[in-house]
Amino acid sequence: MADTGAESTSVLNATGEDVVGATNGTGRVPATPEGMVVAYSSLVIMALLPIFVGSFRSVKHHKEQKISFQESGEKPETMSSKDAAMFPIIASCTLFGIYMIFKVFSKEYINLLLTVYFFALGVLALAHINSPWIAKIIPSSFPNKEYHLIFTQGKGDKKEEIVNYEFDRKDLICLFVSCLIGLWYGLKKHWIANNLFGLAFAVNGVELLSLNRVSTGCILLSGLFLYDIFWVFGTNVMVTVAKSFEAPIKLVFPQDLLEKGLAADNFAMLGLGDVVIPGIFIALLLRFDVSMKKGSKTYFYSSFLAYFLGLVATIFVMHVFKHAQPALLYLVPACIGVPVSVALLRGEVKELFSYEDHSEKTPDPAVSAISGSATGDKKAQ
């Protein structure tokens, strides 16, 4: 979060990590206490919603992946411990690269390209989220027909499939509605349209991004914990990029909504990185709860509560000290510490760190270092 004045807000950086701070460099009237409460309460709710929905959707998605794996033998893509360890380094290089691009080129042209790019991504993300419920509200008398789009390259033995997509007319209606929202965002950049895209990105991220071991999640979150602290406290790169980067990879809510209504323009913001990154870890814990077959979701709800408290702590510290605060400084210890503490109390640390979504795969060395591989445990029994 960035500190450039007296008014509280959040600033999003280029890699999706959130920074919380204070800004009033545009001469706007400072937000009222009521307006700030409404704005930050709304942001917290919008952050919790995609994590909750996306986590339960991830359970269904991973079941489908498992069936597909058993039928085709094609392993789903997952993040390894090495990938998790390298991610903060890659993110740092990306962040600094974007920072240099904004220094060299006009941000108006860059943001124009970003608008086109995120229009396409946002439409697809919205369509994926909206398709099930739009299909339910369309009457059964609707003349639906199915289509199959296949696009290949090459001939004979060298023929390679590029696109293989099945859809129907209900999907086309959903795509049309999503395009209208995309045009609204592209033309007006309205904060409601931004949030629709942002929520869709967040739900899809939590649902589809595969983090299948707790040890991998701990490595990823720990690395980004250090990454966030360095780029917020150590340099101005993150804040500079965040203030220049115009794309629906943030959730926003106006602090002057009570005064100006839907035309409000004094926003508090929360980066999607601080929703999706902890969210995929929390979704993993829900899948672990389901795998235990005990009828409870203790790890999911405890980590979900920890995320909520960590987010509230971030906003509180930002508001009290009026200074830049990396959100993951508070979210990571909460999201890792609480479920591990629960596992210690329940005597399930070994089960927690041995769990993986697709047990047919080779055990991760990081798991073996903590509690022994799952395969070795079975042999010992």
Automatic annotation (TrEMBL):
Its main location: endoplasmic reticulum. InterPro entries: Peptidase_A22B_SPP (IPR007369), Preselin/SPP (IPR006639). Belongs to the peptidase A22B family. It holds the Pfam family Peptidase_A22B. It is found in: Endoplasmic reticulum membrane. Residues 359-381 are annotated as: Disordered. It comes from Acanthosepion pharaonis. GO terms for cellular component: cytoplasmic side of endoplasmic reticulum membrane; lumenal side of endoplasmic reticulum membrane. Its EC number is 3.4.23.-. This is HM13. GO terms for molecular function: aspartic endopeptidase activity, intramembrane cleaving.
